[in-house]
Design goal:
The complex is a heterodimer of chains A (about 450) and B (about 1050). Chain A is mainly α and about 450 residues long. Chain A has one domain: Alpha Horseshoe (Serine Threonine Protein Phosphatase 5, Tetratricopeptide repeat), CATH 1.25.40.390. Chain A is built from 19 helices and nine strands. The chains are: A mainly alpha (about 450), B mainly beta (about 1050). Chain B: InterPro entries: Beta-barrel_TonB_sf, CarboxyPept-like_regulatory, Plug_dom, Plug_dom_sf, TonB-dep_OMP_SusC/RagA, TonB-dep_OMP_SusC/RagA_CS, TonB-dep_rcpt-like.
């Protein structure tokens, strides 16, 4: 009897040890996983809070000249906000445009590191390619947005020494931060976006997901910022070859949110909206911002944008024409109207005036009241055509997160755009090509990393 | 029944036997004090009942060989067989509480004799527990357990310390702080409120590392071992019933610190003039505006005259939110607790069957019923085997009550002091808390449902019912293999299910609001579309917790005469698995009788009525992920006693868990402990007439915590993207493979003693805790991952020292017994190292001292404050900048950060009591017993609430010191309360934080509280069906007796929206059959 019991005991112990490791292999939560499968990587890239909604910097837009804040309103605002308005931002900390952009950079890097560890084969190659392409696209998209905000405008003569952004291409957080040059920054964006083109399908099944059209649009934006109009034309054209739909504004009903349902379809190629930091200054919800009066005055009465983009008010009007959906609806993504305008501008700068005017007319026809005959724009003077296009670019793409980069770029072309604002009874201005166009990095990041502040 | 039969038999025998009788005289005395015991009852089989006189003497007639049963309420019953012709007998009775020292220490793994344990522990008996009333067994440990601190009222938002209990201070900075709870040998996973205090036989609290290391990673914060009542072999059947009624008056809402109505409306007028409400008024969501602002707005728009406006404001000034809420409440709370247990045992079987029924009706009209049935039994199977089986089932049903004070808020933010729920005629009034009436009155051209909120009646249309069921079943088999060698295998299954149904009836505001929001008006009323169907809305939440525990343990116990007096060793293995799952669903268009509901489309985003922003219908059904935690542990423990007075012990344990993403080698975590003890009083040279027992002991042990984030891979949480409907993955912490375990080590040195035959007993323990590589948030370059600005890393070392002491005195003159005990604790833990920026930044303590902040050389919980420079001539608070007065609060903060104590702030001191304890008293005279307990907390500071204009503007919650605010030049000499300024005032936010964090609001927290008083009358009966009965009366929450702060503040209840509880009265009845 005793022997039997002891034997049973020993058996029990042995069996116990063997089954232990299996017992412990059970996954502790069915809703968690590690990034070792295409399914999980795809899920990471489909996180719209990281890549689409409330993600792009609004610091630039808050600093730009498409809106203004009345002095009496400005007086009621907190220092942290009014200091941004007067281009003298107080030191600021987490969370901010920087943290939001680099979140998507981290996700992209993690996916890029993980996807190469998974074997590509016949059955999974489409998804594998999509993940590789999408991660490259998202990283380049974030880098470009960061460069627009925190770096000086691209200038071939000084790009090698101008301070760019932290080009973080690995997920390991122990790698310290350093600022690359503007040249390196744009080179990386172009290289990543071009590589993404080779992996992405022409179109995607949701505007949250990148596609070849989106990557082309991104390249067109990047080359335009570099004032490389030849390449910008090529990729704008490639984008419009895939998708060239334009919304007919005659089909849009006028109310407080006219484009409420247009954001996920219509002209959108890739959907993103601006993040909260900085948006508080101009977001309609806070009732602070008014549309720039000179800009508003440029819309024709039969231009449907005048009604659909603005709540007319006395003495000032308010912008309402964002393409986004929901609360964080300040659209900053890539849409065909922008690409039409890029192609038109490039054509104009490359002296292909008729092609330029065609794109402009194609776009404006869709914005014109159909009950009034549209008069085609015609012009033979290259400078005049360019001026027309740049005016329409401003009228079409206001509050889209593009104006700050445009001011910087166009001033490099000698446009002499000087934003001016009334603060505390005085008119303050930001001279063209001022170093302050590279907006300050977060204070805590500077303290922790020792990177150079702008 | 059995007893009655026995009694009849005995009686018959007595008559039939007619044995020779003789007179017996004697004396009954206390075995400890030697004093005579008066009023002891003596029962013989044949004869009647006798009692001892005042001198403890007795005389009775007795038959030869008869057994004399001596009993007294304060002593254990004793049986004496009377020898033939014995004429004089001295009988020593053992005092009842003397028994307490005989209790065994249940570590959950083995039962030990107190003198054989080298570690630090406290045993709380059932009687001690019953001196306090209330539903939670843990609350009853307050004031009676050395080393244990209850942070009552302390901000309970610390997720690491939901129980607010700490044993011997902290041993981690960022890890869990709650002690481990063991119920009948296994960790208890359910809600602690499911354990009925009446079922508890005793509680052992294990405090030092030697005692807790056997629990491995989870035991680092101390262990509370709860043992429930069970049957005993060879005891007669006994029935116990008990019943308690606990009565409390409803909270005194007038204790809340707030502005008077007139002042508050004045503030609103001020804000309105400055345009504070403009964005709310014009908000696209038509946000609700407060009644006063509504009047101001009408006046501004010119729709009412100045006279009308003044009249309406005057009317509002007569409102009182406290009265309004009181009209929703009952005058008090009543809790009824009833329990019955039946216990008994034959020579081969022991059993216990019990039931409880608790009924709670709280002042806020919430109701709570708890029914519990439990059973346990032991069977001897042959000579070598014992089988235990038990089951415990509890079902609790809870109905939520009226809204809590100040929970009805305007646009979810603003609580007002002048609300009315009914008008003068008693009719329910409309409160436009979410939307402006001007909008809701006209929206939808009458084709929407009534969009008004009626606070007086709305709760009648909400039924919020939660049901919780808890089932525990266990079996255990003990086999005696060889002499001294025992195998014990046991298994326990626990399942707890929760189900919550929140029904918003069709008439409720919530249901009407949802219907309206999702209504789309058509061209005609017939074409209107209701995406959320008209009717009720039922929201359901369900959860399930299953845990399984298995243990196999081999124990060897042997005693000898000689050098090795005793050897006890055990080795075992445990498996543990818990599984949590749950989910939720909603039903729209719900009607209960006749049952009906309407399916809705959760997928499509519809434009909502007011703004046109699209939204999906909320509460789509979902199931949460299944969380499965598994643990394997192996452990061993050995104790040797040498020469009957040296005690040496050691234990070893390794734990492993299925922490996801961890390498297998990292899953195993070792713990060890060792201890020595020396019972000096058994030495020959120890020749003290005074001390009857002295033991010295020392232990050393380790524990550690492994962080689940220490993973080689990033952990991805999967869910459903609510817009694209793709599977979405998110990462909440980046992978950090360099994280190490937290390690902690505790040394304990103690002495136990008994003086003059245990008339005074006590123990003193000194401990030292050292923690290394503790986790803490370290600032982190979020360029690498933008999800947070800090990350958990091994950043800190800490060291804590403390003393636990308890002293118990027994004083008696034979009739009156007075027992008193003092508990004294000293504990102070400091950060010794902190790697990372901010390590010396004392300015981080400028908060309330509610969270652990590691600053080198400072206590873990502490308070610092700005030096105060008074108000200036504009009513602005002044601090110091470079030793001169300043109102540049941003610069003041910068100096505070940079210079710390050298600059403009002052380190005040610890925010948790450094010295704490209790002083309890019990006086017993015959069956009457009076006991009371004083609890003290000393040597710490707290920050009093102060007026913050930002908080006042955004939440409506102010501070009555507003009355004394600076109003005109000259006031600065008389007051410290800053002037009312608007949000655009320079550094408005910083001005508020400076003022609230200044030294004038910090006070000493030292106080003494009367924890409870308890009056009990107990009586035994000799010949009735009832064997004994008791009635008790208890008052708790009696408040503070002494405090160091001069303002009458209760440091335990000085947080926003907390007020001291009302006294609690309990009447209890108990009877045994």
């Amino acid at each position: 009897m005793k022997t039997i019991i002891i034997v049973i005991l020993l058996l029990f112990c042995v069996a116990g040890c063997i089954s232990c490791s299996k017992f412990l292999d059970k996954k502790s939560d069915t809703s968690i996983d590690i990034p070792n499968s295409l399914r999980v990587l795809q899920a990471l890239l489909d996180n719209s809070d990281v890549f689409n909604i409330s993600v792009t910097p609004a610091f630039g837009e808050a600093s730009a000249d498409d809106y203004f804040i009345e002095e009496k309103t400005l007086k009621t605002m907190e220092d942290r906000l009014s200091s941004v308005y007067s281009w003298r931002s107080l030191p600021y900390k987490f969370s901010n445009n920087w943290s939001v952009c680099y979140t998507s950079v981290y996700y992209s890097n993690l996916c890029l590191e993980s996807v190469v560890r998974i074997e590509k084969n016949e059955t999974n190659k489409d998804q594998w390619n999509y993940i590789k392409g999408a991660a490259l696209f998202h990283r380049a998209y974030a880098f470009l947005n960061l460069a627009w905000t925190f770096a000086k405008a691209y200038d071939a003569s000084s790009a090698a020494t101008d301070l760019g952004i932290d080009l973080r291409v690995q997920s390991d957080f122990k790698i310290s931060s350093k600022r690359s040059s503007v040249q390196e920054t744009y080179d990386r964006i172009i290289a990543d976006a071009k590589e993404a083109l080779g992996y992405l399908p022409d179109t995607s099944n949701h505007v949250f997901r990148p596609s070849k059209a989106a990557a082309s649009g991104l390249l067109a934006r990047a080359y335009l910022s570099m004032r490389n109009y030849d390449s910008a034309f090529r990729y704008a054209d490639q984008c419009l070859t895939i998708k060239n739909d334009l919304l007919d504004y005659n089909t849009i009903g006028d109310n407080d949110n006219p484009f409420l349902n247009a954001g996920y379809s219509g002209e959108t190629v890739f959907y993103t909206t601006m993040s909260l930091w900085g948006r508080e200054l101009f977001d309609k919800t806070y009732k602070r911002a008014m549309a720039d009066t000179l800009l508003y005055a440029r819309y024709d009465e039969n231009d449907l944008r005048k009604k659909l983009f603005f709540n007319a008010g006395k003495p000032y009007s308010e912008f309402k024409g964002m393409y986004g959906v929901g609360v964080a609806r300040y659209f900053s993504g890539i849409a065909t109207d922008e690409i039409y305008l890029i192609r038109a501008e490039c054509n104009a700068r490359l002296a292909r005036l008729q092609a330029a005017l065609k794109d402009l007319n194609d776009l404006l026809k869709k914005r014109w009241n159909k009950n009034v005959p549209y008069k085609e724009l015609a012009q033979n003077d290259a400078a005049a055509v360019l001026e027309l296009i740049l005016l329409e670019r401003r009228k079409e793409l206001l509050m889209r997160g593009l104006r700050w980069a445009d001011i910087k770029r166009l001033n490099k072309e000698g446009a002499h755009i000087v934003p001016a604002r009334f603060v505390n009874g005085a008119l303050i201005t930001l001279p063209a090509n001022d170093p302050a166009y590279a907006l300050p990095l977060p204070d805590d990041i500077i303290n922790l990393t020792g990177m150079q502040q702008n | 029944m059995k007893q009655i039969l026995t009694a009849i038999c005995v009686l018959l025998l007595a008559v039939a036997g007619a044995q020779p009788r003789h007179l017996l005289k004697g004396l009954v005395k206390d075995s400890v004090t030697g004093l005579p015991v008066a009023g002891a009852t003596l029962i013989t089989k044949g004869n009647g009942v006798e009692r001892t006189d005042l001198k403890g003497a007795f005389a009775l007639s007795i038959a030869d060989g008869d057994t004399l049963v001596i009993s007294h309420i304060n002593y254990t019953i004793q049986n004496v067989k009377v020898q033939k012709e014995e004429a004089y007998l001295i009988i020593s009775l053992m005092p009842r509480d003397q028994q307490l020292e005989e209790v065994t220490i249940n570590t959950g793994y083995q039962k030990l004799k107190p003198n054989e344990v080298n570690g630090s522990f406290s045993v709380i008996t059932n009687e001690r527990l019953n001196e306090q009333k209330g539903l939670s067994v843990l609350d009853r440990l307050n004031g009676v357990t050395p080393g244990m601190l209850f942070k009552a009222g302390k901000n309970t938002s610390n997720v690491n310390n939901p129980s607010v209990i700490s044993i011997r201070g902290e041993s981690t900075i960022n890890g869990p702080l709650d002690p481990l709870i063991i119920l009948d040998n296994f960790p208890y996973d359910g809600d602690i409120r499911n354990i009925n205090p009446n079922d508890v036989e005793s509680i052992t609290v294990l405090k030092d590392a030697a005692a807790t290391s056997i629990y491995g990673a989870k035991g680092g914060n101390g262990v509370i071992v709860i043992t429930t009542k069970r049957g005993k072999f060879s005891t007669p059947t006994r029935v116990d019933i008990s019943s308690n009624a606990i009565i409390t008056e409803r909270p005194d809402l007038y204790q809340y610190r707030q502005l008077s109505v007139v002042e508050y409306i004045g503030v609103e007028a001020y804000l309105f003039r400055n345009g504070y409400f403009n964005s709310t008024i014009s908000n696209v969501s038509k946000l609700g505006i407060t009644p006063a602002v509504e009047v101001f707005l009408k006046r501004r728009n010119g729709s009412i005259t100045a006279a009308d406006s003044a009249a309406q404001i005057d009317y509002l000034k007569k409102g009182d939110t406290r009265e309004a809420y009181n009209s929703l409440y009952n005058t008090g709370s009543i809790i009824l607790q009833n329990s019955v247990t039946v216990r008994g045992g034959s020579s081969t079987a022991a059993w216990m069957l019990g039931g409880n029924y608790d009924k709670t009706a709280l002042y806020d009209r919430s109701k709570n019923n708890r029914v519990n049935v439990r059973f346990n039994s032991s069977f001897k199977l042959g000579k070598r085997m014992t089988l235990d089986a038990g089951a415990n089932y509890t079902i609790t049903t809870m109905f939520a009550g009226s809204p809590a004070y100040n929970s009805i808020k305007f646009y979810s933010n603003l609580a007002l002091p002048y609300l009315r729920f009914r008008d003068e005629d008693g009719n329910p009034v409309v409160l436009a808390k979410d939307r402006q009436r001007s909008y809701t009155d006209t929206a939808g051209m009458g084709r929407l449902l009534d969009w008004n909120y009626y606070p007086a009646t709305d709760n009648d249309f909400i039924r919020d019912k939660t049901t919780r069921e808890d089932l525990i079943g266990s079996v255990g088999l003990s086999v005696n293999i060889l002499d001294g060698l025992n195998l014990y295998a046991s298994y326990q299954y626990q399942q707890q299910t929760g189900n919550s149904d929140k029904l918003y009836m069709a008439e409720s505001y919530y249901a009407r609001n949802q219907v309206n929001l999702f209504t789309r008006l058509g061209a005609t009323a017939a074409a209107d579309v209701f995406r959320v169907p008209r009717g009720g809305i039922l929201l359901n939440n369900y959860s399930r917790l299953q845990s399984q525990n298995g243990r196999a343990q081999l124990a060897y116990d042997r005693r000898w005469k000689g050098a090795i007096t005793a050897l006890s060793a055990l080795a075992g293995m445990e498996l543990r698995s818990t599984l949590t799952s749950g989910g939720s669903y909603s039903i729209y268009g719900y009607r209960e009788d006749p049952l009906s509901n309407t399916p809705v489309d959760y997928y499509t985003a519809y434009p909502t009525f007011i703004t046109g922003f699209t939204s999906t219908i909320p509460f789509a059904p979902q199931k949460s992920g299944v969380v499965s935690n598994r643990f394997v542990s192996v452990y061993g423990n050995m104790a040797i006693t040498l020469y009957n007075r040296f005690f040496i012990n050691g234990s070893l344990r390794r734990d492993a868990a299925n922490i996801f993403g961890l390498q297998t080698n990292d899953k195993w975590n070792p713990f060890w402990s060792s201890g020595i003890g020396w019972e000096i009083s058994k030495e020959r040279f120890f020749n003290s007439a005074l001390f009857n027992y002295v033991k010295l002991r020392a232990t050393l042990g380790t524990s550690g915590i492994v962080n689940p984030n220490k993973t080689a891979d990033a952990i991805v949480y999967l869910s459903d993207d609510n817009i694209s409907r793709f599977l979405r993955g998110s990462i909440s912490t980046p992978n950090n493979p360099s994280l190490r375990w937290e390690k902690s080590r505790q040394l304990n040195i103690g002495i136990d003693f008994g003086y003059r035959q245990n008339r005074v007993t006590g123990s003193i323990d000194y401990y030292n805790k050292k923690g290394k590589d503790l986790y803490g948030p370290a600032p982190f370059n979020y360029t690498a991952w933008g999800g947070a600005s800090t990350m958990e890393m091994n950043v800190a070392n800490m060291e804590g020292n403390g003393i636990d002491a308890s002293l118990n005195f027994k004083i008696t003159d034979g009739r009156v017994n007075y027992n008193t005990g003092v508990i004294f604790n000293y504990t102070l833990a400091k950060t010794t190292k902190y790697f990372g920026p901010g390590a010396e930044q004392v300015s981080l303590f400028l908060g309330n001292g509610n969270t652990i902040i590691p600053i080198v050389g400072k206590p873990l919980y502490a308070i610092a404050a700005y030096k105060w420079g008074g108000l200036n001539k504009k009513g602005d608070p002044m601090g110091y900048l470079n030793d001169t007065l300043s109102t540049d609060y941003t610069a003041i903060r910068v100096e505070a950060n940079n210079k710390g104590e050298e600059g403009n702030i002052r380190f005040i001191g610890p925010a948790n009591p450094v010295i704490y304890g209790a002083w309890n008293h019990a006086i017993r005279w015959r069956g009457l017993e009076f006991s009371c307990n004083l609890v003290y907390k000393l040597g710490y500071y707290f920050r009093k609430e102060a007026l913050n204009y930002q908080t006042l503007f955004s939440t409506g919650l102010g501070h009555p010191e507003y009355t004394n605010r600076w109003q005109q030049e000259g006031d600065e000499t008389a007051t410290n309360v800053p002037a009312l300024v608007y949000t655009n005032y320079p550094q408005f936010t910083q001005r508020n934080t400076f003022y609230t964090a200044s030294e004038i609001h910090v006070f000493r927290g030292d106080h003494v509280r009367l924890q409870y008083i308890n009056l009990l009358y107990r009586r035994s009966f000799a010949r009735t069906v009832i064997k004994d009965a008791a009635i008790s009366f208890n008052v708790a929450n009696l408040g503070i007796l002494w405090r160091l702060n001069k303002y009458g503040l209760d440091p335990d209840y000085n947080y926003t929206n907390t007020i001291p509880p009302r006294p609690q009265f309990t009447i209890g009845l108990q009877a045994g059959f």
